[in-house]
Amino acid sequence: MVDIQKRNLFRRKSELIINNLMPWVDDKQQFLDNCTQCKSCITSCPENIIVKGDGGFPVIDFSLGECTFCGKCAESCQEDIFVATTQQAWHKKAVISHACLAFENVYCRSCGESCPEEALSFQIGINAVPEINLDKCNGCGACFSPCPTSAISIEENR
Ligand code: SF4
Ligand code: SF4
Ligand code: SF4
């Protein structure tokens, strides 16, 4: 029983790390195998959105801000972890849940106003649920913290 609980806890922690991998970290196992937890990426991020996560591994925390895709985290790392920054940074996209205020007929445009890619649009009307243009959304996370109801998550979308 204890083993099962430990295994479930480990799985939840692994999923947490994987959902919050840094940009240009494409292979989660390679990351877990090679990261020495030296913190170079954490101190190099100008947005201060990389934090020490579960198990000591660096992860992205969008509650602290957005990724500007500056590439400093990848440049600072001395290990074989990051792919070339000429490649797509990641496959994350914003996802909006039913916690969005529009479902309560409450006016809100916070996410749309914060999106640098203009990936969010609203139909006319007070209860307009934001629509995401997945071609434009780059998963930067800028819409995450402005949402007053935590209706937005940034998730892997391959
Ligand atoms: S690309 Fe830049 S802003 Fe994004 S996590 Fe890396 S260092 Fe931070
Ligand atoms: S994740 Fe970034 S690009 Fe995508 S909708 Fe949110 S703010 Fe816009
Ligand atoms: S910021 Fe949140 S509550 Fe407001 S429109 Fe966007 S998803 Fe809905």
From TrEMBL:
InterPro entries: 4Fe4S_Fe-S-bd, 4Fe4S_Fe_S_CS, NapF, PSI_iron-sulfur_center
Annotated 4Fe-4S ferredoxin-type domain residues: 26-55, 56-87, 128-157
Binding locations of [4Fe-4S] cluster 3: 137, 140, 143, 147
Domain of life where this protein originates: Bacteria
Cofactor (UniProt): [4Fe-4S] cluster
Keywords assigned: 4Fe-4S, Cytoplasm, Iron, Iron-sulfur, Metal-binding, Repeat
Residues engaged in binding [4Fe-4S] cluster 2: 67, 70, 73, 77
Compartments where located: Cytoplasm
Pfam families to which the protein is assigned, alphabetical: Fer4, Fer4_9
Residues reported in the UniProt entry to bind [4Fe-4S] cluster 1: 35, 38, 41, 45
PROSITE patterns reported in the protein's UniProt record: 4FE4S_FER_1 (PS00198), 4FE4S_FER_2 (PS51379)
Function of the protein: Could be involved in the maturation of NapA, the catalytic subunit of the periplasmic nitrate reductase, before its export into the periplasm.
Subunit structure: Interacts with the cytoplasmic NapA precursor.
Stated family: Belongs to the NapF family.
Name used for this protein in its record: Ferredoxin-type protein NapF
Gene transcribed to yield this protein: napF
